[in-house]
Amino acid sequence: MSRTVIAWAATSPHELEPMTIERREPDENDVSIDIKFAGICHSDLHTVKGEWAKTEYPLVPGHEISGIVTSIGRNVRKFKIGDRVGVGCMVNSCRTCHNCTEGEEQYCLKGPVWTYNTRDPKEGKITQGGYSQHIVVDQSYVLRIPDGIALDVAAPLLCAGITVYSPLKHWGIGPGKKIGVIGLGGLGHMAVKIGKALGAEVTVFSQTLSKKDLGLKMGADHYYATGDPSVLRGLKRSLDLIINTVSATIPVTLYLSVLRRDGTLVEVGMPPEPLSIVPFALASQRVGVYGSNIGGIRETQEMLDFCGDKNVFPVIETIPASYINEAYERMMKSQVQFRFVIDISSMESRPRL
Ligand code: NAP
Ligand code: ZN
Ligand code: ZN
């Protein structure tokens, strides 16, 4: 039998409110999860605002999910009742294309089934995400949360953590490498922490110096305000890789002068407007601009285990569901330190009428 659960949904680009949604009856491969915490990613906000592709309202956002397994289908071998688990941005993919078979399901050639705002071929309806009490997910897209990671800080790792871990690993960041991180928000602060844990020297570029002490405390070696143009001139040709986590369009061409020959700028921020790049800035030192999209399931598990081993956790502000709209307002003003995480136990047992 399907199950009715409380969720917070956007009914328009302007507001989220409590309502009930139906979760499917678990099948033989499914894991049923009581959600304990859900992180708020800026992608939730882009989607709620309808800034990307079409948004289907009502929409329950949330793809940084941590919780406890409450039941399993008869074919489930990976999990048992009571396990601490996570769900990230994907809940399924075709499993047969070249990218899926290589463990890069996020690049599924048929398009992954995203955790929300995607038509799920299995159910024939639009997926609804983690700002809710419960979710049912195929075992192949569920992650195990290591014992050393509390469930509240585990949640943001499922998107913010893997989104920065994957490109840092892909481009071989480790001891002796120097990286830059643009934007000290949810993704940015995880890039600092994971970059340091991998052994790199980390430079932060933030709009102001207001978070400098916090940035240095979490491990950054250098911290600059981007408002001052002399900063980038002074750093000419010093970094191996820059990861741009900014949710708005910024003049990325300016940062290419900071990269060494063959250096890489990885765009993970996803503003809806195009970026402008001057070809000379690419050609003069053969630098590259790439994008990167979360990470595959196998790599997400690797990242969780890495963060558990190295004690790399996000800095969170835990909020009740009733604070979601205010949290969105603060996120739009870059007033987050550094990830909002919704305590799902705060969801009323009966939604307001
Ligand atoms: P966030 O917590 O809101 O952080 C974004 C940061 O960007 C802010 O804290 C701010 O840092 C900086 N910023 C914001 N507006 C700016 C502006 N107008 N000019 C300059 N800097 C500005 O957001 P997030 O959750 O980290 O997500 C960041 C972006 O990554 C979003 O676009 C999101 O959709 C995208 N994303 C992509 C992936 C992927 O797989 N590629 C996954 C998750 C998220 P300072 O205050 O330090 O300046
Ligand atoms: Zn996200
Ligand atoms: Zn595929």
From TrEMBL:
InterPro entries: ADH-like_C, ADH-like_N, ADH_Zn_CS, CAD-like, D-isomer_DH_CS1, ER, GroES-like_sf, NAD(P)-bd_dom_sf. Keywords: Metal-binding, Oxidoreductase, Zinc. The keyword Oxidoreductase applies. Pfam families: ADH_N, ADH_zinc_N. Residues 11-342 form the Enoyl reductase (ER) domain. CDD domains: CAD1 (cd05283). Its cofactor is Zn(2+). The keyword Oxidoreductase applies. One of its GO terms (molecular function) is zinc ion binding. PANTHER family: ALDEHYDE REDUCTASE. Belongs to the zinc-containing alcohol dehydrogenase family. This is NADP-dependent alcohol dehydrogenase adhC. It comes from Rhodocollybia butyracea.
